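Example record

The entry below shows one chain as it appears in the dataset: sequence first, then structure tokens.
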Amino acid sequence: MDNEPIILMSSREIEKMRQAGQMAAELLAYLEPMVKPGVTTLELNDAAEEWTQKRGAKSAPLGYHGFPKSICTSVNEVVCHGIPNAKQVLRDGDIINIDVTPLVDGYHGDTSKTYFVGEPSPIARKLVEVTEECLWRGIREVKPGAKIGDIGAAIQEYAEAQGFSVVRDFVGHGVGRTFHTAPQIPHYGTRGKGKKLRPGMVFTIEPMINEGTWEVEILADKWTAVTIDRKLSAQFEHTIAVTEEGVDILTLPPALVPA
């Protein structure tokens, strides 16, 4: 992926990305009230698919390299790419990351958030709160002339200071008309290293932070990534654009978009 050219988007293209990103944010907001004990991950998936179709959009994950569902639902020790299914019933105390990517007029809106199911344990609450803060610390590093390594370093420094670890196997990525493209955005790294950020670059920042070791393994379904030690993992994701002034978050819910 990193051998691919990095696409710099025009302001018109970035507005298209914002439309897709806002639909992604609205979809998460629609699903959030459904996240409660007794609901299956398949019910979340089917609600997301119906909502997306009604708005004339497509679910980019559905069929992507053979992925069988419309969203990813990653519960507890699942790091990412959890496949919704009828047998997985949410229970009080679970955490679940919901990752959505509606395809709107040819552009991908990619965002995810980790939710509490009922009342979380103290360690689950801390992990989720730290992971969300990691996302914001990564975003705050974005400006023209900064390096990709600055993003990962900010995330890694904070996560490890809180006693957690940063997943290495999955990273943020360029996104636009293509779902995954250059550049890769690791959530660990060294300040001053990596490619220079330039206005027009659009990519995701999506730190996956683990309670225990950062190591993961892929289950037999070839998709579901879980922590090796089966301890908890959390993730938050926004799609952002590098601007002349700094950073523009394209997947904010409309209520949070600056006027």
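Notes for this example: The chain has one domain: 11-250. The chain has a mean pLDDT of 96.
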